[in-house]
Specification:
With about 400 residues, the protein is an alpha/beta fold. The chain is built from 10 helices and 27 strands. The strands form 9 sheets. The protein has a 6-stranded mixed beta sheet, with helices on one face. It has a 4-stranded parallel beta sheet with strand order 13-12-11-17, with helices on one face. The chain is globular.
């Protein structure tokens, strides 16, 4: 079986590595990635603040496996059995789409021209500008009150006390936390000197953000107001939602295309309707489950439905603080949170585990664990599973 996996991020890499050990000798796996290195997207706000993570080459991460790594940009997907990478055409029997997400730079005029994003190249450029900006007391405005915006604003304020950091949101902060967590968040922002602005952005200009009733000036603007999926998926005729995510069934097959699976940020479950957020916490289980189902197909066994229950919401507030909000098996929030330095330790452990998971897969150990509906935690069968993410 010729299997092509598009995307070398969390979902695609784990899918390739697990399939390689589950179906050794029965499958030819090609992993396609535009990037030479594995991108730790959950650390890009740290990179932008000057804490560049160590980079691992994808070639090294798949070394010793039967995976063929092909560098290049996917320019075309023919659902009938062919993809184009650059100018090269590759045929497949099964395709796994794991192209991930990217900052949505189309939703507001001026983002592309005047704002930074937490994409690798933009984060690196922002990191080079912040030291001089902090030295002269410049102002950074972070747009977006979700996890990415909160983490970016607190990271900048802690790393560069000379900066004037503002967090601009369209609604109240901390809606994902219980009251105690929200109070801790607001206290942390106050301690770090991060000011809050509220309003809906109409346009971003060269040095100011235009709201409905006023403008907010800045020296540097960081846009974290949402993510989208590569337009290639819609253009290829695959069924997608309004965000461009590919619609998949409970077995992760693309609707109407049994030879194609989609996982990670690029996919969304439609039966039942997905409650899975974008991020590595869902990408890793989806990638591992897709690999298991492909191995079952090869063995002539029935596939299994993906079961996933949200278990934790982790937010870093700089290097020494954070909020960990846990969830019950029914999806409701527990009435307490972990904060402060212990929360920072937990978040760091989780970040490290997402990088360790594929390394364990490469040497034959399952590194991906997630909670299922039927039990508090569950592991895919066969092999020694030892790491929770």
């Amino acid at each position: 079986m010729r299997v092509i996996i598009l995307g070398g991020g969390y979902a695609g890499l784990v899918c390739a590595l697990r399939l390689a050990r589950r179906a050794r000798g029965q499958v030819a796996i090609t992993l396609v990635s535009e990037n030479e290195h594995f991108v730790e997207r959950i650390r890009l706000h740290e990179w932008a603040a000057g804490h560049k993570p160590s980079q691992k080459a994808l070639k090294e991460m798949v070394a010793g496996t039967d995976i063929t790594l092909k560098r290049g940009r996917v320019t075309r997907i023919d659902p009938q059995g062919e993809v184009t990478v650059g100018q090269e055409r590759l045929s497949f029997d099964r395709l796994v789409v794991a192209l991930g997400s990217q900052a949505d730079t189309r939703s507001v005029p001026g983002i592309r021209e005047h704002a930074f994003t937490l994409e690798p190249a933009s984060a690196a450029e922002l990191a080079s500008k912040l030291p001089a900006l902090a030295a002269r007391g410049g102002r950074v405005v972070v747009i977006g009150g979700g996890l990415t915006g909160i983490e970016g604003a607190t990271e900048f304020a802690e790393s560069y006390p000379g900066l004037k950091v503002s967090l601009l949101t369209s609604s109240a902060l901390g809606k994902d936390f219980q009251d105690v967590g929200r109070k801790h968040l607001l206290s942390c922002l106050d301690r770090l000197g991060v000011t809050q602005e509220q309003g809906r952005v109409k346009r971003i200009h060269a040095d100011a953000i235009e709201l409905a009733d006023r403008t907010v000036p800045f020296d540097v603007c960081l846009w974290t107001g949402g993510f989208t999926v590569p337009a290639l998926l819609r253009e290829s005729g695959l069924p997608v939602n309004e965000r461009g995510q590919v619609l998949v069934d409970p077995f992760l097959h693309v609707l109407g295309h049994k030879n194609i699976m989609a996982v990670g940020d690029a996919a969304t479950l439609v039966d039942p309707p997905s409650a899975m957020d974008m991020g590595c916490k869902t990408a890793l289980p989806m990638g591992a489950h897709a690999a298991e189902n492909l191995a079952r197909i090869l063995r002539g066994e029935p596939e299994k439905r993906l079961e996933y229950v949200h278990s934790v919401f982790c937010t870093s507030l700089g290097r020494n603080d954070g909020i960990i909000q846990f969830y019950r098996a029914d999806g409701s929030r527990v009435p307490w949170v972990v904060t402060g330095r212990p929360a920072a330790w937990i978040k760091e452990f989780i970040c490290r585990s997402t990088l360790l998971a594929p390394q364990l897969e490469r040497v034959g150990l399952g590194g991906t664990l997630w909670r299922k509906r039927s039990q508090t935690s569950s592991l895919e069968p066969s092999g020694q599973e030892i790491l929770a993410v």
